[in-house]
Write a structure and sequence with these properties.
Blueprint lengths: L2 H4 L5 H18 L9 E7 L4 E5 L12 H11 L5 E8 L9 H9 L6 E6 L2 E7 H4 L11
Parallel strand pairs: 3-4
Antiparallel strand pairs: 1-2, 1-3, 4-5
Length: 144
């Protein structure tokens, strides 16, 4: 879904609200029968397209997927490869930040100034840049 389809190209507050809503909806659809810890993610790609994902657990625990990985997979399937913003939504008193593996996955498709918004059901609790979330990271530019 694009920003123009959402009629939000000139309204960043409406876009942020929509990304927050999509992350919430994704969290509410998570498949978490084992941990009972739902997480949702929503991405705005640099193209303006919007993607979402939720965590999906599996009885063979290492075979589950994180919400961020699901949203990134949807983004790549949609033809995009650059994250502009990502909203990560989870419940709890502590910040629900991306796990180490997801930080690296986000890094693959980000720039140092890409914004990662850490949310709970009430709103954005903290916004970090990719550089702050994963300092001194290894990425595609290291392989050039």
């Amino acid at each position: 879904m694009s920003k123009s389809e959402l009629n939000m190209a000139d309204n960043p507050d409406a876009l942020n609200s929509k990304l927050f809503e999509l992350a919430t909806a994704a969290m509410n659809r998570a498949y978490v029968p084992y941990s009972r810890f739902p997480v949702g993610a929503a991405i705005e790609a640099h193209s303006g397209e919007i993607y979402a994902g939720c965590n999906v657990e599996n009885a063979a625990y290492p075979e589950g997927t994180c919400a961020e990985a699901g949203a990134i997979a949807a983004m790549v399937m949609g033809g995009d490869t650059q994250i502009k913003h990502i909203y990560v939504m989870g419940k709890g008193d502590l910040l629900v930040t991306p796990c180490g593996g997801c930080r690296q996955k986000i890094r693959e498709f980000s720039r140092a100034d890409t914004e990662i918004h850490i949310c709970d059901e009430k709103g954005v609790r903290k916004t970090l840049t990719m550089e702050a979330l994963l300092p001194f990271s290894f990425g595609p530019d290291n392989l050039v």
